Amino acid sequence: MSGSITSVPGILCGHFTDTRRPTGCTVVLTPAGAVAGVDVRGAAPGTRETELLSPLNAVEKVHAVLLAGGSAFGLDAAGGVMRWLDERGIGVRVGPARVPIVPAAILFDLFTGDPSIRPDAAAGYAACEAASNAPPVEGNVGAGAGAVVGKLFGIDRAMKGGIGTAALAVSGFTVGAIVAVNAVGDVIDPACGLPIAGARTEDGRALIHATQAILNGETPRLIEPASSTTLGIIATDAVLTKAEAAKMSQMAHDGLARTIDPVHTMTDGDTLFALSTGASGLRGHLSVLGAVAARVTAIAVLRAVRAAVGLPGLPAARDLLSSSPPANR
């Protein structure tokens, strides 16, 4: 599998990773503007400018999308993205000014290290400075730096999440995705139906299937509200309307449902953005593009946890190779 979200013409991507504790942000820049849509499925989202993406509302294009750690504090990083774009005269003309349009979403990563350290405007600006059309680094970087998965049975039985990216070219179009995986649920390999990262057994040596454990009578811990969230951006060079971009983001959530179990929970703020650069100049069939969007989203989720590196008390998928098969599949 090759390709990344920057395989889509018109897309730049950059990370900022804080060296003081595992946190950071990831920006996707579309300097020429991109038609955008969004679909929020989790019950605990932290977002900015998502209402503007409704097909009912006036602004047609965005100039960047930001994913950040730091919980709601991390939304401050979008101000740095706006400043970077403003300095370059990029934005929607409104009277005497150009206003950059920067939707954003955050995930909760305050379990790891000093929670007073969060992405801020300087972090968003730095992510823009780092942005290019090169394939983004995966794993413990950017918005995935402090990501954790498999928290249903407590943070002490969880594992390291991360950020991953993928792209597919189909019928003359390219669809790419970048996903920061910080789910309360397990990450499942759809090829075998077993978790590759997630909740571990009490001794910490093997994986359990969290949902199956619940069905077998094991009671999960009460997880703090808004303590998780998987975020992603899906981009294509096909020409889409705002309504079509919204539908593509909706269909891309199928990729999360195939690879995260449980998903879209009360403690997740799962949010996927869709971008259409239109660089191909061609219109694609939305059912085809949506199906590909779901596939690249699923691949990006798997790549995120496979690229992750463990932290003290939080092993990564590469560290834990055994999986306890569910009892009543």
Short characterization:
This protein has 329 residues and is α+β, with helices and mostly antiparallel strands.
CATH architecture: 4-Layer Sandwich
Shape: globular
Could you describe the largest sheet, including whether it forms a barrel? 9 strands, mixed
Query: Beta fraction of the residues?
Result: 25-35%
Structure write-up:
There is one protein chain. The chain has 329 residues and is α+β, with helices and mostly antiparallel strands. It contains 5 helices and 16 strands. The protein has helices at residues 77-87, 121-130, 210-215, 242-259, 286-307; strands at 12-17, 24-40, 47-48, 61-68, 92-94, 97-99, 104-106, 148-149, 159-160, 162-170, 173-181, 186-189, 194-197, 231-236, 260-261, 271-276. A hairpin with a 2-residue loop joins strand 5 and strand 6 (97-99). The chain starts with 11 loop residues before the first strand and ends in a 22-residue tail after the last helix.
Describe the secondary structure blueprint for this structure.
Layout lengths: L11 E6 L6 E17 L6 E2 L12 E8 L8 H11 L4 E3 L2 E3 L4 E3 L14 H10 L17 E2 L9 E2 L1 E9 L2 E9 L4 E4 L4 E4 L12 H6 L15 E6 L5 H18 E2 L9 E6 L9 H22 L22
Parallel strand pairs: 4-7, 14-16
Antiparallel strand pairs: 1-2, 2-4, 2-16, 3-7, 5-6, 8-9, 10-11, 11-14, 12-13, 12-15
Helix pairs in contact: 1-2, 4-5
